[in-house]
Task: inverse folding
């Protein structure tokens, strides 16, 4: 159920704001009918999470349309005007560069970038925040950025990296397809980090936007000969700290 | 199995070490242009290291020396072409495309064990180390390389190099021996070593001890490992999917029943009886802390007095908890 200030939310009251045919409605409906308690301090806070989730979906679609390539960490590349490439294949924000401009550059000059799906997921979440908060606040929130894997995540994205078991999945979640029998020569296919775009719709950097069955088929093509176990989708979800981001936005004064 | 390495250093390796890569390449090319047989003989010497073969790959191609190489060297080069250039292994080099044959195993082992000392040579060379390791572990289940694999991971980590695929290969072995190999780095003076060891050994008493105590945690860890080893299993978690993966965990139910499980698939060595399942049903309804308490007490009682353990197991679970709490002082 959804609770606002401890009181159950009547979903009908939001129908004019979020039409049933819109992308937010399935999220509201799933939260409302869930056995989990989705609690918010105010209706505005719920609106903010929905806005963030839609921004995440948009950022994922835009990255898919960008010219950024897929590359294993050993062959990753980035625009040296904004980022330093580390010895392990990650990107670190250069000194004196505005974080907001550096993230935006990935979308504007995608052809200068190539990386694995875990880094791409982080880029998507940074871009989603950038699209909903002022640039100056974004720069203050993320003065240092390291884009690599889930070992190097900002505290605001800690739960994106950890992923928790969940019975509910919504647009804007990060999820993971596991490929246990992957070919040892292609460890990059050991699994897929994806963004949920909507019901049974996933975006993975380098593969594009597909249904779950297609993602599994692609992973299964990269198994070792004689493999017995199919790839599968984990029942875990990774989500940014929407509450904290909301609070930072509320207390922001330019 | 073919010879995988030699303690002696080959002629070409000595030149490389003494005079550098470029001098070795120039000398080898000059030798090959005057006598292909002599160049092939140098390349086929017993003590050759993989790094030397890898560095001379362009010269071998330029001299069309493939056919004159011993099978191990041909297989290693064919493997490099396949991984780094996308070429298929072919029957004319004596390799099967399945990648599971003994000559391939032998060549990969030579590549990894003689290449380890040159790890860091180049991105492509290190990638070959990664692939050789993952094939040796996942395809050939070769545990001989585990100590060197652990050393390589920590060496790379100190330099900030890429370790994901090596860590993935290491834990794919699902061999509990890797835990004590990793634990040795808890004693390291280097903070990067101790931090990585603690990260890889997550879900152990190290977490309870706190970060400051981690570099002093070697002995407690070994004690913990000794107690829990029969009940350990490896998960499918990894850094590819999680910022804090649980790579290995303890099956508390198995520990409560004092029944050894397979670290590979978490299956008990001997099937559980109806009575075991009844005990487990009651056990699994308890809180996590109570399950940990029961498992620890059960294991210790079983080890010291099997007759008392049999009696204790017949008590209702509430009474078991009461006794365990009293004897262990509430410790979990």
Result:
């Amino acid at each position: 159920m959804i609770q606002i200030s401890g009181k159950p939310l009547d979903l009908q009251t939001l129908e004019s704001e979020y039409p049933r045919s819109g992308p937010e409605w399935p999220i509201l409906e799933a939260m409302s009918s869930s056995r989990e308690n989705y609690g918010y301090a105010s209706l505005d806070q719920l609106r903010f999470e929905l806005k963030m989730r839609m921004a995440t979906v948009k950022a994922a679609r835009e990255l898919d349309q960008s010219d950024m390539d897929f590359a294993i960490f050993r062959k990753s590349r980035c625009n040296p005007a904004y980022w330093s490439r580390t010895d392990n294949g990650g990107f670190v924000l250069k000194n004196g560069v505005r974080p907001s401009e550096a993230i935006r550059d990935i979308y504007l000059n995608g052809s200068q970038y190539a990386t694995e799906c875990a880094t791409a997921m982080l880029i998507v979440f940074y871009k989603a925040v950038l699209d909903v908060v002022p640039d100056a606040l974004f720069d203050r929130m993320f003065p240092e950025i390291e884009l690599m894997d889930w070992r190097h995540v900002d505290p605001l994205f800690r739960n994106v990296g950890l992923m928790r078991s969940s019975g509910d999945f919504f647009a804007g979640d990060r999820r993971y397809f596991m490929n246990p029998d992957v070919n040892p020569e292609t460890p990059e296919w050991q699994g897929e980090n994806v963004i949920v775009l909507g019901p049974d719709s996933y975006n993975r950097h380098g593969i594009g936007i597909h249904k779950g069955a297609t993602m599994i088929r692609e992973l299964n093509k990269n198994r070792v000969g004689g493999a017995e176990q199919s790839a599968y989708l984990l029942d875990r979800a990774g989500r940014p700290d929407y509450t904290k981001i909301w609070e930072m936005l509320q207390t922001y004064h330019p | 199995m073919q010879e995988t390495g030699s303690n002696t250093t080959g002629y070409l390796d000595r030149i490389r070490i003494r005079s550098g890569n470029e001098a070795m390449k120039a000398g080898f090319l000059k030798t090959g242009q005057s006598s292909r047989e002599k160049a092939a003989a140098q390349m086929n010497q017993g003590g050759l290291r993989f790094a030397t073969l890898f560095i001379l790959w362009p010269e071998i191609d330029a001299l069309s020396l493939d056919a004159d190489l011993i099978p191990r060297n041909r297989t290693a080069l064919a493997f490099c072409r396949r991984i780094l250039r996308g070429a298929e292994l072919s029957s004319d080099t004596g390799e099967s495309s399945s990648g599971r044959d003994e000559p391939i195993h032998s060549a990969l082992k030579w590549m990894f064990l003689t290449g380890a000392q040159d790890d860091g040579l180049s991105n492509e060379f290190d990638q070959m180390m990664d692939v050789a390791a993952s094939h040796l572990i996942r395809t050939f289940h070769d545990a001989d390389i585990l100590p060197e694999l652990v050393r390589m991971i920590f060496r790379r980590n100190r330099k900030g190099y890429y370790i994901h695929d090596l860590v993935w290969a290491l834990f794919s072995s699902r061999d509990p021996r890797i835990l004590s190999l990793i634990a040795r780095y808890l004693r390291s003076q280097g903070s990067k070593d101790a931090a990585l060891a603690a990260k890889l050994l997550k879900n152990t008493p190290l977490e309870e001890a706190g970060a400051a105590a981690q570099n002093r945690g070697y002995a407690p860890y070994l004690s913990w490992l000794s107690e829990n080893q029969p009940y350990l299993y490896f998960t499918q978690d990894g850094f590819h999917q999680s910022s804090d993966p649980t790579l290995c965990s303890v099956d508390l139910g198995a520990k409560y029943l004092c029944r050894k499980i397979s670290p590979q698939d978490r299956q008990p060595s001997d099937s559980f009886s109806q009575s075991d399942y009844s005990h487990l049903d009651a056990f699994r309804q308890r809180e996590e802390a109570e399950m940990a308490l029961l498992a620890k007490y059960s294991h210790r009682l079983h080890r010291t007095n099997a007759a008392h353990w049999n009696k204790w197991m017949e008590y209702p679970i509430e009474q078991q908890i009461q006794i365990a709490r009293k004897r262990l002082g509430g410790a979990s």
Remarks:
- Strands of chain B lie at 232-234, 248-250.
- Chain B touches chain A at residues 82-83, 98-100, 123, 126-127, 130-131, 134-135, 137-139, 159-165, 168-169, 236, 238-244 (CB under 8 Å).
